[in-house]
Amino acid sequence: MTEPIVQYRDVYKSFGDVKVLKGINLDIHAGEKVAVIGPSGSGKTTIIRMLMTLEEPTSGDIIVSGENLWKMEKNGKEVRANEKHLRKVRGDIGMVFQHFNLFPHMTILENCMTAPIHVKKEDKHEVRERAIQMLERVGLGDKIDNYPSQLSGGQKQRVAMARAVVMRPKIMLFDEVTSALDPELVGEVLEVIRDLAQHEDMAMVLVTHEMDFALDIADKVLFLDEGVIAEQGSARDVIEHSQNERLQSFLSRFRA
Amino acid sequence: MNTTYWSWERFFEALPIVLDGLWMTIFLTFASFAFALIVGFIWTLLRRIPIKPFNWIVTWSMEFIRSTPPLVQLFFIFFALPVIPVIGITLSPVQSAILGLGLHYSTYISEIYRSGIDSVGKGQWEAAKALNFSTMDKWKKIILPQAIPPTVPMLGNYLIILFKEVPLVSTITVSEILLLANTYGSRNFAYLEPLTIVGIIFLVLSYASAFLIKRLELRLNKRFDKNALAKSS
């Protein structure tokens, strides 16, 4: 197997006195679809927020495409990464948030165009074309000139996904992207994720409570429990063959 | 009582004399306000520098400026500053007025900027980071376009308050409307008409500006968010 594009090496994270992650070791390979499941408060979201550089690990290393994300060399010594280093390394990573975080002062199309144009300095017309195509793909081709406030939650989340994909990340992070939605809107968002999982070759990490969906699309499932990866493997392995009692009791809560 | 206290003749005699100072009052209002907008922005930047002792000095300086009366500051800048060794500089009355009023109001303006920035949700900062914006672009494209519109009505209110404080500078010999009205009064032993004129000028202009700001506020609210929602769905 090739070198993984993301490696967590003994990563710890505490918020004050609360130890959220206690030694995470994890490889994510190019194109791999990873689902992170586990009870709330187990640190699922923190894992991907550290990769997006929204939280700094308390200790340990996260390696992205061979570069240490949170540390850099300076005069032969390893020091804390500065913003310049973080910017360089996180360029490969994209994220979709629970609460969408669309830019309210921009139209849907502008939301999808601003980063490729201003961050990646790509050609405006080319970006526009690509953004429109992407918005059509998520079923919002007729809304491109609307503002986010004019959309439903499900539509907003689809825009957020289009906005992230237009940046062409190598790794896409999904942070409980259906948790803030009304139940009847969850389906349309999952459909887009499924489409991305099947047709895009970027790696995807999904933190989710949509158990059946996660197990269905994921190459690898992580069960996170009390700050450690308690179980990992293919969906089939994890569900059918795991002897982990806490995992079994966690899964049984999702079986009616 | 055989004297008439009010004379229309004097009123119309004083009117052009007092109005002569109006341009100065308005000029000082906008010049001081522009100065306050810029210095307020610098305060806001300085306060974001995450070095504790430095932060403490900045906060304390602002508190000091805000807690001393603008009149004292004007007197200090105009009368006391020139006699201080080394840093002492002599400023013209108009320069002193702009510096004094501008500096005093910059501390309030900075507070408004901060409230505007704080009103931008955490999710917006995170989205800007996730899309890998540079620090400069993050402010220019994402944060400020959202932070500024809600502050416009507040800034407008401070503009009106500042406008009403401008007569303070008559004490440092700037020929604005109050000084001219006073001069007319002392020359003719008649203060009622010129000072009434000053009152009317302030009433008319403050009221008109407040009205304009209200309109502006409504229009800003109408832009993105709430009303857009009502329009489409």
TrEMBL record, chain A:
Keywords from the UniProt entry: Amino-acid transport, ATP-binding, Cell membrane, Membrane, Nucleotide-binding, Transport
UniProt xrefs under InterPro entries: AAA+_ATPase (IPR003593), ABC_ATPase_HisP-typ (IPR030679), ABC_transporter-like_ATP-bd (IPR003439), ABC_transporter-like_CS (IPR017871), Ectoine_EhuA (IPR014343), MetN_ABC_transporter-like (IPR050086), P-loop_NTPase (IPR027417)
Assign the protein's first listed, main location to one coarse class: membrane
Q: Which SUPFAM superfamilies match?
A: P-loop containing nucleoside triphosphate hydrolases
Its record classes its membrane topology as: Peripheral membrane protein
All copies of the ABC transporter domain together span 6-251
Q: Which GO terms describe its molecular function?
A: ATP binding
Cellular location of this protein?
Answer: Cell membrane
- Family in the record: Belongs to the ABC transporter superfamily.
Q: Could you identify this protein by its name?
A: Ectoine/hydroxyectoine ABC transporter ATP-binding protein EhuA
TrEMBL record, chain B:
Using the record's annotation, list all stretches that form the ABC transmembrane type-1 domain.
22-213
| Signal peptide positions on this chain | none
Which gene does this sequence derive from? ehuD
Q: What is this protein called?
A: Ectoine/hydroxyectoine ABC transporter permease subunit EhuD
Give the membrane topology, semicolon-separated if more than one.
Answer: Multi-pass membrane protein
Family statement drawn from the similarity comment of this UniProt entry: Belongs to the binding-protein-dependent transport system permease family.
Give the residue spans that cross the bilayer.
Answer: 22-46, 71-91, 189-213
Key word Plastid present: no
Localized where? Cell membrane
Q: What is its main location?
A: membrane
Q: Which InterPro entries does this entry report, sorted A to Z?
A: AA_ABC_transptr_permease_3TM, ArtM/GltK/GlnP/TcyL/YhdX-like, Ectoine_EhuD, MetI-like, MetI-like_sf
Q: Which UniProt keywords apply?
A: Amino-acid transport, Cell membrane, Membrane, Transmembrane, Transmembrane helix, Transport
